[in-house]
Design a protein that fits this description.
The chain has helices at 6-10, 13-22, 39-47, 74-83, 88-92, 95-110, 117-122, 124-134, 141-152, 161-191, 197-203, 213-244, 246-254, 259-269, 301-304, 339-356; strands spanning 25-28, 33-36, 52-53, 114-116, 205-206, 209-210, 278-280, 284-286, 289-291, 296-299, 361-362, 383-385. It is α+β, with helices and mostly antiparallel strands and 405 residues long. A hairpin with a 4-residue loop joins β1 (25-28) and β2 (33-36). The protein is built from 16 helices and twelve strands. It is globular and about 60 Å long.
Length: 405
């Protein structure tokens, strides 16, 4: 049973519905992993740390030594370091700069009337933001984008076989490149500290000891992946949702105050992160099925967010949905550190796109190409067309809300 062909990854929800109804806990025998599809089961796997560990071991070996693959007390200490850079005040302070970056990314395309939304805007914007937070020079942004893609493609390791081996091998090569690159940045920060996240990592301590360059490299990889992939897919998926549901786009234009609610509904309806990794610490019974100890478990967030026992009419994209207790950013101690940043980027990106790109539509009826990483949901390419416009000499007044009419 191939759970990950392109056609399924473009629209996994019919399969999710089928499995959630018939087998909410499903054993993928060829890979010896377990998938959990219902809301309650997924939420338990995310929060029951006595039964489910985040320190997973995929078929290709040990997972990367990132905060997301750690358990308390180590997780608690590492998370406290990163949270210093993701305070509500520091995230809010990024808003003016994100608006500038959004404008600058759209300007070169606005007069052409067409662009690849994923490659030309939704991918670069979060990468530029995280690069500035880390203090990476602007000329190295393309390199960071390549690093991020290779890191996220490690998700193929769960499947084993040639594709997994290729992903692991490619990452090993790029990791050495990152190691050399990062060593230069770290040395520069030690000579001249700056007001950026990399300086905070260089100066941070755990149990009275400074982080090693290996520790900082692990943080660097995690922040690249977590700080870019979710926001990229959130922006792309939002445009897909509105193009597929023009009545909801009309509703948003008539009531711009629904923008925050609309973003939450995109997160639920087309969850950027479809599944996460856990490993059973002991034999665990879920819905009458016993998952043995030491087994890889995939709580399927994308399915949980379409569970009819939790959401009324879950297949409908409803920008006014209330309540909307989705788990798109996880739940509990591993709740996504970058959630507030991703939401802010979407609150800026969507009004810019909807205001400036008049007559927005897909450039082709061909099925869109999914991103390579199998745990995420969103397009790798999304060609769009629109009525040619003018560059923004200054940031458009009122661009913080979708244009009415």
């Amino acid at each position: 049973m191939n759970l990950f062909p392109d056609e399924m990854r473009r629209d996994p929800y019919p399969l999710y519905d089928q499995l959630r109804t018939g087998s909410p806990v499903f054993h993928v025998a060829p890979l010896d992993l377990w998938m959990v599809f219902d809301y309650d089961g997924v939420k338990r796997a995310l929060t029951d740390h006595e039964a489910f560990s985040s320190a997973v071991a995929p078929p290709t070996g040990k997972a990367p030594d990132w905060i997301v693959f750690s358990d308390p007390p180590r997780h608690t200490k590492l998370r406290s370091i990163v949270l210093r850079a993701f305070t509500p005040r520091s995230i809010a302070g990024l808003e003016p700069r994100i608006r500038e970056l959004s404008r600058d990314l759209l300007d070169p395309w606005i007069e052409r009337g067409e662009m690849d939304l994923a490659a030309d805007y939704a991918g670069p914007l979060p990468t530029m933001v995280i690069a500035e937070m880390l203090g990476v020079p602007p000329e190295d942004r393309a390199r960071l984008l390549r690093f991020s893609e290779v890191i996220v493609n490690l998700s193929h390791a769960i499947s084993g076989g040639e594709e997994a081996a290729r992903a692991v091998s490619e990452h090993a090569v790029v990791k050495e490149e990152m190691k050399v690159y990062l060593a230069g940045l770290i040395e520069a920060r030690r000579r001249a500290p700056a007001e950026d996240l990399l300086t905070r990592l260089v100066e941070a301590e755990v149990d009275g000891e400074r982080l090693t360059e290996g520790d900082i490299l692990n943080f660097f990889q995690f922040l690249l992946a977590a700080g870019t992939e979710t926001a990229t897919n959130l922006i792309d998926n939002a445009i897909l949702c509105f193009l597929e549901s023009p009545a909801e786009l009309f509703r948003l234009r008539a009531a711009p105050e629904l923008l925050p609610s609309a973003i939450e509904e995109v997160l639920r309806h087309r969850s950027p992160l479809q599944m996460v990794f856990r490993e059973t610490r002991r034999a665990v019974e879920v819905h009458g099925q016993v998952i043995p100890a030491g087994k890889l478990v995939l709580p399927v967030i994308g399915s949980a967010n379409r569970d009819p026992h939790q959401f009324h009419d879950p297949g409908r994209f409803d920008i006014g949905r209330d309540p909307n207790p989705h788990v798109a950013f996880g739940h509990g101690i591993h709740f996504c550190i970058g959630a507030a940043l991703a939401r802010l980027e979407a609150r800026i990106a969507l009004p810019d796109l909807l205001c400036r790109l008049k007559g927005l539509r897909r450039a082709s009826d061909e099925p869109w190409e999914p991103r390579k990483a199998i745990i995420v949901h969103g397009p790798a390419r999304l060609p769009i067309r629109f009525e040619p416009g003018r560059r923004a000499a200054v940031h458009a007044a009122g661009a913080h809300t979708p244009c009415p009419g």
